[in-house]
Amino acid sequence: ADYGALSVDLIGPTVLDRAGSIRKSTIDFQAYASSNLITGEDATLLTDFIRTRSQADFLDANGVAVFKALLGLYGKLVKLETLQYLVTIIDDNTQTDAAIKQLIAAAAKLGANPAELFSQCFEKQAGDAYLLHQSSRIIARLLAGGAVLAGRQLRVFLQWLATTIQGLEPGNSELALAALQKVLARATVRQDAISVVEQALVQVLGLENRQQAVYLAIFSLWELSFDPVVVSQLQDSPSVSKVAGLLRTVRKEKLARIAVAFLRNVLDKAEDAQSKRKFAGQMIAQKAHQSIDSFVKQKMFHDEEILADCEVLLPILSGIFDSLSSFEEYRVEVLGGQLEWSPMHRSERFWRENINNINDKHGELVKALARILETAQTYEILAIAVHDLGEYVRFYPRGKALLESLRAKEAILGLMEHQDSAVRYEALVATQKIMTQNWEFLGQKLAKGQEEKS
Fold it and tell me: For residue 370, what pLDDT band results from cuts at 50, 70 and 90?
């Protein structure tokens, strides 16, 4: 489907599929002149405009006058069918920057703010999806072209976009994403937008079967990341981690390009060295440094922008990764949910020296390990999380109460029946650590039994 300057490769039908039938509607502009809603001169102008073979050529000569007449009538009507027709005609004919300038100039002659005029249907909660979507496209172009929408009206509009993005209709969701992408081209709206739309964008990042939606979501995050104030708000957000994690499976070049561009922007715009290190840690937790290294070494992509961003990102991430202490590396790994059998998991010295660190921040890492029991993407990650929770109570017996409160103990007991043998073994050992007060003797016995089996 092609929807002009906001066209996207949609995955399904959208409300705008009705545009063709709406364009065929017949509007009697002279009747509106008789009702004094427009002048007779405007009625004749609009009739000639609709009937002309080339509306583009007509607008070249009479654009401001035509848009002035359309806006004047739009602002006075309540009949839904006519409003739908007018926004369709306006949307059809405002695909270019020049046309948007004419629309803004026409509104100025009326003493009106065009973006506010089209935002009224969101304030009124009119409920007609077609009218709302067409209006959102027009507002998006107006904002990108220099018109102003602020305060409550901007917030209501952004909230509608966020709600629609999270909606159950994929095609309409992607229309809203495309409109948001256009809106965020305007730098002045970004700080107002981040708190309203970020949750919706993060939700889209998890839709692996909707690559176009994911691309549009990352594109919006990339636009937001040009503002240092916005970037500072991303520190405690899952956005950076989610995008970094996508690099592990990305195959489409345009998706890789916008993802690495976003990550580079975040590091470039970080307010200080500490913030930069925190963002880098989120990326490293998702193995972004390894993914980017693979992009370069395996020549997975040939796009110059991707390679340029990779050349900036890789030394930063690799340098910070190399500087991590064993505990910092462990923390990054756990919070990222990407566990590997690195030596620290099985090192008694590591657990003995860092058990207090693991309890810091109200047991943040223990809670993260407990979450992994439910969210692990592989059996290996699951087995490691079980193992680490067992080691936690081994070196900190008072932590058993925390495991119970997190229902991690119950989950580990259930995993003794898991289909994967490694998960079953780690669950059995962890259960013994949780249940017994004399682990050292029992642990040696279990280890000996495991050696005899192998």
Answer: very high
Q: DSSP 3-state assignment of 346?
A: helix
The pLDDT value given to residue 2: 32
C-alpha to C-alpha distances, 183 to 72, 96, 172, 224, 233, nearest whole angstrom: 24, 15, 17, 11, 19
Does residue 143 contact residue 149 with C-beta atoms inside 8 Å? yes
Q: C-alpha distances in angstroms, 453 versus 109, 393, 447, 450?
A: 87, 26, 10, 5
Q: 70: how many CB neighbours lie within 10 A of its CB?
A: 22
List Cβ neighbours of 150 (8 Å cut-off, separation of 6 or more). 192
Reference 135, options 122, 148, 123; nearest CA is 122
Q: Is the pLDDT of residue 441 over 50?
A: no
Give the other-Cβ count within 10 Å of 117's Cβ.
Answer: 19
169-191: burial string, b at 16+ Cβ within 10 Å, e else: ebbbbbbbbbbbbbbbebeebbe
Q: Return the sign of the alpha-carbon dihedral for residues 40, 46, 47, 53.
A: positive
Tell me the per-residue pLDDT of 122-158, one tens digit each, with 9 for 90 and over: 987 557 899 999 999 999 999 999 999 999 999 999 9
Token couple for 327:
């505990």
Residue 51 and residue 345: Cα distance in Å, rounded? 75
Residue 163 to residue 154: CA distance in whole angstroms: 14
Q: What 8-state DSSP symbol labels residue 169?
A: -
Residue 312 corresponds to which tokens in the numbers above?
A: 């900036």
Where does residue 249 rank: exposed (0-12), middle (13-18), buried (19+ CB within 10 A)? exposed
Write the CA distances from 30 to 39, 40, 58, 69, 426, integer angstroms. Answer: 9, 7, 20, 13, 81
CB atoms within 10 A of CB 318: 16
Residue 70 is predicted with a pLDDT of 95
Q: Which two tokens stand for residue 193?
A: 């937008």
Contact 264, 312 (CB under 8 A): yes
Q: How far apart are CA 171 and CA 213, in angstroms?
A: 9
Query: DSSP secondary structure string, 37-79?
Result: SS-HHHHHHHHHHHH-S-HHHHHHHHHHHHHHHHHHHHTT---
Which residue, among 264, 335, 274, 324, has the nearest Cα to 295 in the 3D structure? 264
The string of DSSP codes covering 77-115 is: ---HHHHHHHHHHHHHT--SHHHHHHHHHHHHHTT--HH
